[in-house]
Design a protein that fits this description.
Layout: H1 5-18, H2 21-45, H3 51-62, E1 66-68, H4 69-76, H5 80-92, E2 96-100, E3 108-112, H6 114-135, H7 140-154
Antiparallel strand pairs: 1-3, 2-3
């Protein structure tokens, strides 16, 4: 179905509105987030990690090395099916193993391997370096101001 001329005009008007000064802030933040995420993902990719993999490794390390898959999903704020797929990839990479949960026979644990611990350390170092590189050009006052502004707009 082809939109009528009036409908097309309304769509064009709306799209033009979306790029006006009122929305530049939103698009600037979304663009910056996308660019920064891509840079970090590329660096992590050089060592076989992604932000999602690193987040899972971090949660496992914080928990002492293992978690039931359901708890890992909760700590990553995602659904269990996503965690299952993520743990599948981590297991294929040798970073995590699955084992029976002795406290609950219905549950399986994701267990950090030695290789996974090493990958977590490497990934954390990459994130720290990226943070320094990306924000190192800011003065302390600018960095504090940026963090305050981001906190203000995300509390919404």
């Amino acid at each position: 179905m082809v939109p009528r001329a009036a409908t097309r005009a309304a769509i064009i008007t709306y799209l033009n509105y979306m790029v006006t000064v009122e929305r530049v802030g939103l698009f600037a933040v979304l663009h910056a987030a996308s660019v920064l995420e891509s840079r970090v993902e590329n660096r992590l990719g050089e060592v076989g990690l992604s932000l999602a993999k690193l987040a899972a490794l971090r949660r496992l390390a914080e928990a002492g090395g293992s978690l039931p898959l359901g708890q890992l999903a909760d700590r990553l704020s995602c659904v269990k099916s996503n965690v299952t797929q993520l743990v599948d990839r981590l297991e294929a990479d040798g970073l995590v193993s699955r084992t029976a949960d002795t406290a609950d026979r219905r549950s399986r644990l994701a267990v950090l391997t030695d290789t996974g611990r090493e990958a977590h350390v490497r990934g954390a170092a990459i994130l720290e370096a990226a943070d320094r590189e990306l924000f190192g050009s800011l003065t302390r006052d600018e960095a504090d101001h940026l963090h305050a502004l981001l906190a203000k707009i995300t509390q919404g």
